[in-house]
Design brief:
Elements: E1 5-6, E2 18-22, E3 25-29, E4 33-39, E5 50-58, E6 68-73, E7 76-84, E8 86-91, E9 96-100, E10 104-108, E11 113-119, E12 126-134, E13 145-149, E14 156-159, E15 164-169, E16 171-172, E17 175-176, E18 187-193, E19 197-202, E20 208-215, E21 218-220, E22 223-225, E23 229-233, E24 241-246, E25 250-257, E26 265-267, E27 270-272, H1 275-286
Parallel strand pairs: 1-14
Antiparallel strand pairs: 2-23, 3-4, 4-5, 5-12, 6-11, 7-10, 7-12, 8-9, 8-11, 10-13, 14-15, 15-18, 16-17, 18-25, 19-24, 20-23, 20-25, 21-22, 21-24, 26-27
This protein binds fe (iii) ion.
């Protein structure tokens, strides 16, 4: 898709401020894939409807080669954004896809899928993100859904200032994203900011929002956000959005959504509302009824 300059850009009168900077936790998952868990379980309530954000970036194949062999999910959605690298997806609902350079895979686990995510490279850089988005109680047992978007299929535009914006979900400057969800209205933007530019995005005050910088650094409300850090944006009644400024070249994710305000019960790859539903998920998985 051709990038087009957008006129009549979004106006933000007052930017949200940074409530807190988060460094994330180095960990490993799957078959020894090294990653940083940026959005960890203790932040799920604060960043409702988002449950997890993992960042992975390595040019050492030992850090990623094992991938994520068959494992189950129930009760939420996974959004994988591959900056660089090739990963093969297969799931029990019969979906299969190759995720590569700039592509997005959106999977709604719903009542259950068993899937694998296996690297299709033995060397080179593997870099990307996996975001978990919760489902409202009424949709947790819905049918699984899956879609792959190649980089060229993702909606993209340039602001007048020259900021390149990929709209993975939601809407920005009148451009609709690849995916929309009614209950949580997720916004997921990848921003490439040239040196000396600023980007404005309106946000409903009650929506929870955060920014993760993966190249360079940005400034929000006078505070500097360095690379590999997440800024949780304050929910301020007077603020109508966020203004992100880059003195040097920077890249960042801006993610926001409407909180569900429902109980969260998580056990590993299952996220439901009650412990009883978690036991049910474990039983269903053990008895082969999950997928
Ligand atoms: Fe998974």
């Amino acid at each position: 898709m051709t990038s087009q300059p957008i006129h009549g850009s979004e106006q933000v009168r007052q930017s949200r401020s940074v409530e807190r900077l988060v460094a994330g936790k180095p960990t490993s998952d799957g078959a020894g894939v090294k990653l940083t868990r940026v959005l960890t379980q203790p932040l799920q309530r604060r960043l409702d409807p988002f449950l997890m954000l993992d960042a992975f970036a390595s040019d050492n194949p030992d850090d990623y080669i094992g991938g994520f062999p068959d494992h189950p999910h129930r009760g939420f959605e996974t959004v994988t954004y591959m900056i660089a690298g090739r990963m093969q997806h297969r799931d029990s609902a019969g979906h299969e896809g190759l995720l590569e350079n700039g592509g997005v895979q959106w999977m709604t686990a719903g009542r259950g899928v068993i899937h694998s995510e296996i690297p299709q490279q033995e060397a080179g850089v593997m870099e990307g993100f996996q975001l978990w988005l919760n489902l409202p109680a009424g949709d947790k047992m819905s049918a699984p859904w899956y879609r792959d978007f190649a980089a060229a299929d993702l909606p993209r535009f340039d602001t007048d200032a020259g900021v390149a914006v990929t709209v993975i979900a939601g809407e920005s400057h009148g451009v609709a994203g690849a995916v929309t969800r009614e209950a949580t209205a997720p916004l997921y933007l990848d921003l490439h900011l040239p040196a000396g530019t600023r980007f404005c995005q309106t946000l409903p005050a009650e929506h929870n929002a955060f920014v993760y910088v993966y190249r360079g650094e940005v400034r929000i409300g006078g505070e500097t956000l360095p690379a590999s850090r997440m800024a949780i944006l304050a929910n301020e009644a007077a603020a109508d959005g966020v203004v992100i400024e880059a003195a040097g070249e920077a890249r960042a994710l801006l993610i926001a959504g409407r909180p569900l305000n429902e109980p969260i019960a998580q056990y590993g790859p299952f996220v439901m509302n009650t412990d009883q539903e978690i036991y049910q998920a474990l039983n269903d998985f053990r008895d082969g009824r999950l997928a």
